[in-house]
Structures are given as structure tokens and as C-alpha cells.
Design a protein that fits this description.
Elements (H helix, E strand, L loop, with lengths): L6 H11 L3 H4 L15 E9 L3 H15 L2 E3 L7 E8 L2 E8 L2 E9 L2 H17 L8 E6 L6 E6 L6 E2 L7 E6 L5 E6 L6 E6 L5 E5 L5 E6 L5 E6 L6 E6 L4 E3 L7 E6 L5 E6 L6 E6 L6 E2 L7 E6 L5 E8 L2 E10 L2 E10 L1 E5 L5 E5 L4 E5 L4 E6 L5 E6 L2
Parallel strand pairs: 1-2, 1-3
Antiparallel strand pairs: 3-4, 4-5, 6-7, 6-29, 7-8, 9-10, 10-11, 11-12, 13-14, 14-15, 15-16, 17-18, 18-19, 19-20, 21-22, 22-23, 23-24, 25-26, 26-27, 27-28
Length: about 400
Amino acid sequence: MRITRPALLLALCFSLLGLPRQALLAAEAPTITVRKSDALNVAFSGIGGSEGAAASAVVKNDLMLAGWFALVQPGAASFTVSGTAAGGVLQGKVVKGGEVVLSKSYSGSPRVAAHQFVDDIVQTLTGHKGIATSTIAFVSNRGGRKEIYLADYDGANGRQLTHDNALSVSPALSPNGRRLAYTGYQAGYADIYLIDLSTGARVRLVKFPGTNSGARFSADGNQLACTISKDGNPELYVIGLGGGARRLTHTRGSESCPAWSPDGGEIIYSCDESGAPQLYRIGSGGGGGRLLSTGFGYCTEPSWSPDGQRLAFNVRSGGGFAVAVMDLGSGGGGGARIVAQGENPVWGADSRHIIYSTGSTISLLDVPTGKSTPVVSALGSVTEPSWSR
């Protein structure tokens, strides 16, 4: 715990962290600097009003899944969360020591408003971005064929997005959650399709001869990295949403699974040129790929954390697949460790949580604590999750 000194110093810290103005109003109050291993003691007194029950259930679940908080009795709490919800408006409030730290109104359904409230709580109390308003996409064969589905990050509000009646795989949500790219076989071979999720409009964006697959959005949402085999070998390309294709790799192996750095300057990908697939790092403008030292003999499906500090990826372990995480340094990596049994890991916006699949379940992993919570199941085989930020 760190107690603040002059209010001016605290104001500067809040400004640098990008915290909301409401938090600055409590400048004279003691605050806590939260690291990813900390947990703030929070009392949740519920949401009143005619829509309060529905909002309360969502707020409580979001607070528990956020990982930053321990829900305790009021006498042991540093912060108290409360509110009212009625007529499509939620008025949320967070109090610390008798002072209001956050007070804000949210419009929309109880679920939507509750998600927004909790994301603001996370931002105000920890300085980190929340995950409650995010969306996940995944592949399910519930209807007999593999199609793309969407859901809230907690697995609620699940719905089928594609009805192609053909193989639809490898979904990739844009960071803002407004677009989705995927690999579809409607034409009989693999092409990359782009869907505007607000209108439902769809275009076949990448349709070169051969295989076009595995698209992933850059952090700004304006480019896609993907695998294209039009030159006879699966190579890594960067595609603009308005057109144009730029080849990045020139190897004898097969490149796949691109993951963009947060600043868009680099891409980590998988390549099997030396035999079993390994991870390589390359500038998004091209150049030579540099092998990452992971300590594992089989590595695929990298995902770069939004804070740029860590990489999650698939490894083979004990006859199956596992999720590994390693710290990234300049030009290399280190400290890789297995954090879960499963595959297809994807970082959330908070650089704290990962979603991953086990074949029948998609789970939410709190990496610092190791707590894994199933969020999608009972939909047949569920694989290849993607996550908006």
C-alpha cells in the first residue's frame, strides 16, 4: 500500500495513468497502488431499483472475474460499490472512506450498463483497462458444421454469426469489436472474409489462388496479417482493408498464426522451416525473421499482450496441448512457463487474462492467480477463440 502525499503529486500520477476525473476529486484520500498480484477489498451492496436484480448479478460476476478485487463484508472493505437501475439507466457509485470515488450514469440494458460500470471501476481503482464490455468469437460445430459464434466475454448472450453451411474457421475480432475476419470455404477453397458486425455486410477480402487463411488484425484495426499460398508456399502477408497485399516472409517452410505487436511494428508467427513449428519475430514492414527462444520444441498460435510485455502460445505437453506464457525482451524472450492445459490462447485488453479452448469449453484464465473459469460450454466442440479489446 502507498499513501499519497500532496494532492498535486497525486493529480500528476492520475494524469499520467489516464484515470477519470472522478478519481481526482478524491485527491486528498489515501489510495492504493495496485499491482497484478494485489487484490483490493471491495464490498458490493447491490444495485437497487426495478432493474437492480439483473444488474446486480452482472456487476458481482464482473467484479469477481476481473481479478483485481476481493469481495468482502463492508467492515473489511476499502471501497463500497452500489447503485440503482431503472428505466434503462444505471446510476453507479463507488465510495472510499466516505468520499465518492466514482459516480456515473449508464444507459442501456441492465447487462450492458453493468459491464460499463465495472470497466469504469477497474479503470478508476487500478488504472488498468477492463474486460467486461469485450466480446469473444469462436468456432462451434453445434449445428453439424463449423460456424462462427459471438458472445459476451463471460459467455452470456451467445449467438451464431455465420450460416454458411460450409467450413467457417479462424475468427479474428478487430480490437474495437466492430469487424470480424474469418476463413471460409464457401467457394470450395479457403478465402478470407470480412464482416461488419454492425450492419452484417460481408466481403470476400482475400481470394488469391491457393489458400488464404488465418487473418489477424493489427492493433489499430486497419491491417490484417495472414497466410497466403499463391506463390506456391504458405507465406506471411500483410493486407490493407482497402486492398493491397505485401509479402513479408520468403522461406521454404510454412508460415502461420501471426500476432501483431501493440504498436504495429512487429509480428510474431509460427514457422516449420526447421522441422517442428517454432516462433519467429519479424518487422511488419518485412525483413528476416528472428527465432524466439521459448524452451519448447513445438510452438504455435502466439498472442501478444496489449501491454507488449508477454507472449502466450501453444506448446505440446504430455501428449496434448498446453498454454505457455513468456516474458518478451528486446529481440528475444525468457521465463516461459505452462499456465493451463488447452490451446488457442488470446490475451484480453487488461494484459492479465487469457481465454483458451479445451475442445468442449472456452475458459477465462487469470494469469497472476492461475484461476480458470469456464465461460462457454454446451455448444458441442468450441475452439479457436478470439477476443476484442
